[in-house]
Design goal:
This protein is of the alpha/beta class and 217 residues long. Helix content is 37%, strand content 16%. It has a single domain, classed as Glycerol-3-phosphate (1)-acyltransferase (3-Layer(aba) Sandwich). Strand 3, helix 3 and strand 4 form a beta-alpha-beta unit.
Length: 217
């Protein structure tokens, strides 16, 4: 029996339905390349991050339910039980959070989809600074990585809610080709993870450049 603390697959499916309603109700997502996400089995979605709606946007546009690693600071008040209820994972970014690491690996061990912002926090959304966590999960689990570019979410509106992109504005979500991060040796040493991080950064940056050319962003 699945332990109560395990990430909820049914909760993530509910979160996807909520994301679809909110994201398509408030904005006009244009989704490109969703067929590149494997239809079954473990997969990691590596997403650039420039705005708070990037996570919900991907939850509502990905072809499968997604369990995101989300900073613990977001789990406050009523958001705590809500985020847990829809299968999202709380992570303490200030330390090696073994509970979060175990939960993320459990998602992949059960053939689920793990969503990661590899830059660790919101920034320029250009994949310029990657943390090693993505490489660890990819090499440790053997799950393929699908790069995802969310473009247009950082556009600010002067109307209604200035902190959000223009309501009913277009946001492009572009999925790239799946790839494996390891070198095939199965090594999980620090050197192997550092090399994997370099390979991942090259692939993610290349996908982002291709997505911008494709969408004209």
């Amino acid at each position: 029996m699945t332990p109560p603390s395990a990430p909820s697959a049914s909760g993530a499916a509910t979160g996807r339905r909520i994301g679809i309603g909110l994201m398509y109700g408030l904005w006009r997502p244009r989704v490109l390349g969703a067929w590149r996400v494997p239809a079954a089995g473990p997969v990691i979605l590596a997403v650039n991050h420039s705005h708070n709606i990037d996570g919900p946007m991907l939850m509502g546009t990905a072809p499968r339910p997604v369990h995101f690693l989300i900073k613990k600071e977001a789990f406050v008040g009523p958001l705590d039980p809500f985020l847990r209820g829809i299968g999202q994972l709380k992570v303490d970014r200030s330390t090696a959070d073994r509970t979060a690491i175990g939960a993320a690996l459990e998602v992949l061990d059960h053939g689920g989809v793990l969503g990661i912002f590899p830059e660790g926090t919101r920034g320029e959304g250009d994949f310029a600074s990657l943390r090693a966590g993505l490489a660890y999960f990819a090499v440790r689990s053997g799950a393929p990585i699908v790069p995802v570019a969310v473009l247009g979410s950082a556009e600010r509106s002067s109307r209604l809610v200035p902190a959000l992109p223009p309501l009913r504005g277009r946001v492009d979500v572009v999925f790239g080709d799946a790839f494996t991060a390891g070198d095939g040796s199965g090594r999980r040493t620090r050197k192997a993870l550092d090399e994997a991080t370099v390979r991942i950064q090259e692939r993610l940056a290349g996908h982002l450049a291709d997505a911008k050319r494709l969408t004209g962003r």
